[in-house]
User: Fold this.
Amino acid sequence: MNTNIPDNSLGRVSLKGVNYSLDSLEILRNIDLSVNSREIVSIIGPSGCGKSSVLNLISGLQSPDSGQIKIEGKSDQSDRLNMISYMQQKDLLLPWRTVLDNVILGLEIQGIPKKESRKIAMAQMEKFGLLGFENKYPFTLSGGMKQRAAFLRTILMNRPILLLDEPFSALDALNRMQMQEWVIKLFDGLDKTVIFVTHDIDEAIFLSDRIYVMSSSPGEFIAIENIKLTRPRSREIMFSSDVLSIKNRLLNQLLKPAL
Ligand SMILES: Nc1ncnc2c1ncn2[C@@H]1O[C@H](COP(=O)(O)OP(=O)(O)OP(=O)(O)O)[C@@H](O)[C@H]1O
Ligand SMILES: [Mg+2]
Assistant:
């Protein structure tokens, strides 16, 4: 069977029966995930359960032992490079490039001249709290600033699929909320597919259409929570009784003792 015939019945990103092990240690078991365009989906679960591994597999950085991973219905890995922008858990800024030149990496790769790329990025520096730091090197920045630079780089790549691994983990609470609100506005109405990992249940509820809860050893999805809150969402919604019961359900899943 030719697996590269697009299967339109699947979401833009789809994983079916994916198993993955490292050094004969079972990391992920039977992972099913389907995400459409214009959907924001999050993955939550205890540390070490395999959340980053799921994103590594989707991006093509790692390969599954078995199961299917399809992007736009196609399993060909070579297509993924142009479709996916991946912000890994570590910021991976290049130490020998200035903040501005780190941020424009994706634009440069797409062939946009440096001068133009810099202009595009400079227009966003203030929003990302990086104005005045464009000519500094990453080692002079705080963890939160490095993370915002890596996030801006991911956004500027302008790909249809964004994989974000704890994109706001190094930010203080206020900054984090501002970024969340900005993100929710940014993606509203855009043809993007966002899959992100977070430890923050409130963040997952606020941003997501659907939340996948993972257990550990091996990593398996043990619950899926659909978040049917209307968009655009405002912060007040987080105090509603609907949100409190969603939070309660998610916490119960996360705190469930492993069998
Ligand atoms: N390079 C590696 N070699 C061996 N084992 C690894 C490697 N990278 C990850 N692992 C193991 O794979 C499992 C899943 O790791 P992964 O990074 O996907 O978890 P995670 O849910 O993202 O964790 P965290 O919340 O701490 O980021 C862990 O048990 C980890 O020990
Ligand atoms: Mg991780």
